[in-house]
Amino acid sequence: MKEKENSRLSVFLVVLAVCLVYALGGGIRSNYGLMRGAIAASSGVDYAGISFVLAAAQLAFGIMQPVFGAVALKTSNVFVLLCGAAMAVVGLALTPLCHGSWTLLLCFGILMPAGLGAFSFGLIMGAVTPLLGEKKASAVSGIINASSGLGSILLALLLRGVLDSFGLWGAIIALCLPMLCLMPVLLLLRKADAKQAESTPPLLGPLLKTAFHDRSYRLLSLAFFTCGFHMAIIETHLYTQITSYGFTEQSVTYAFSIYGIATMAGSVVSGYLGSRFSMKAVLGCFYASRTIWTVGFLMLPKSPAAMYAFAILLGFTGAATVPPTSGLIGRRFGPAALGTLFGVAFLCHQVGSFVSAWIGGLTVTATGGYTLIWCIDAALCILAAACAFRVRLPAAE
User: Which residues contact 294 (CB under 8 A, 6 or more apart)?
Assistant: First the structure.
């Protein structure tokens, strides 16, 4: 009985550790904008230059996820997470010393976000799945994914206060200290690494070849591309769109706060549903529901009730696709390969985000409204749902 209790405590501590790691990484990434003014004042880089640095940061974060996943195959998840934390700390610590575009790009646009790429959802789930088993891992995945939203909210409050009181250096210290404190916590994952080491890790070349020739993996990656397209509209254009309807900035801010809370709730529910029902059905339903909310919002009168309902529904389905996507990839290829293959799929997600942000700006400029980009998104969500329902994973379903 005592051994069983110790085992449960060990698992709880591991899950808590990865939640803290994922919350911190997600919180830093989602709050780049809060530090924008302070970084511009410190570095002397103009608005356009800062925008390029932040764009490079998104790209570096996406590219490094499959790279760190591949490194984890050769070393261990703990080693990769420690290296990523160290890179992020160094990049952050050097940022206030940057006084030009190139040095800022190197530190804040490449080194820091590249380090955060180690805190990818796929690699973290690959670390905990051997300890939990597939069913429990699916349920826990929603909680882990939701921790990113919680980290975003808490760090936003912390950074705003620290920036106002102590400036950029204070904000950098406030971000670096938790990262340094988490490094010893990461050692809790050594047990998961030891368990994973009992099986022979897949070779990178054959793994990628198998994945790219796998129809189900291609379908999941294509669906994730559309997910990125959808999310970038929300992050890039929705705020401006809603204010154009005459709503105050304060009411729109409230709507986005509700959106963040709904995102966490949807992620937790998605993880639970994936542990009880067919993951591909859960994934397909979430994608299909986005089409319903989008078309409804376009057709309904733009009232406060419609705005808040739209924010809740978009949030509830926003991050809910991540747990079943990672779960399906993990079941097909195993937890050891999850960091690499989910990282590649997430890179497709980031490409979708780039296309959406770019095309969205073009369509709004050309048409003077947002209807066209949302119609494209609705069509892509139908495509994503069809891709999810057509996934065939004999070992899982």
Answer: 374, 377, 378, 381
